[in-house]
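Before we proceed, please read the two lines closing this message. Tell me what the token row says about the fold.
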Amino acid sequence: MNMNPHNIKLVAVDMDGTFARSDYTYDIHRFNAIFSRMKEVGCAFVVASGNQYYQLRSLFPDHHNEMSFVAENGALVKDKDTFIFSADIPKESIQSVLELCKNNPEIQNVMCGRNSAYCERGTVSKEFFELTNIYYHKLTWVDDFSQVEDQILKFAPTVPVEKTEYYCDLFREKLAGSLVPTSSGHGSVDLIVPGCHKAAGLEKLVQRWGITPEQCVAFGDGGNDLEMLAYCGRGYAMDNAPDAVKAVADEVCPSNDQDGVLVTLDRLFPLM
């Protein structure tokens, strides 16, 4: 089915492994041309990622005020200039996570707040902090997570790659539904408020703008994109995505390193 560009009202893109190439660049010139064609036909561009809002915004210095963001896996939603939603994890759930991580010291935990993300001194290395800083532009060292005064959106623990499934099961069991694990693979896990995922974030924008899920297109490559790919009228899995993600998508497009999102958007929003 050929989607008429005038019928597409929202395009949502995951960032890592989807929109961004492996070296974290994208073809800015090509994107700018597509973005202006999208604006002409009244289609919104939404970045939907597990990453921090401030980090995502920094990738689009010329346009971030004209686009919307579903950041932190749906825990923070921004419609152009306006924050319209942010999760707020209850104190008891925060305490449960901190205890679980203390009992399993190989978990390297990042606490993600509305104002900043946080790493705890003595539990993670300087190298880990610097690596995390790539995805969380606002990142602060603290002596003790429990002393942080901020609205906590999610946790982003890193576990040994080969034990990703084991830890997802452990989080599921020990947190008993107060927070749920979602993994983008490679040892990265997000602990999020139940029902708070990328599709739920998109739905808030869809309702706010008076459009329908059928008018939405999404691109993704990981387990945390499944709900979004299923929710949108057209879901594209990247060629580099695992089979489980491709199975949920309507179509497979070229990989992130082949600029698959831009190749597809060029086709969906051709030069008139």
Summary: The mean pLDDT is 95.
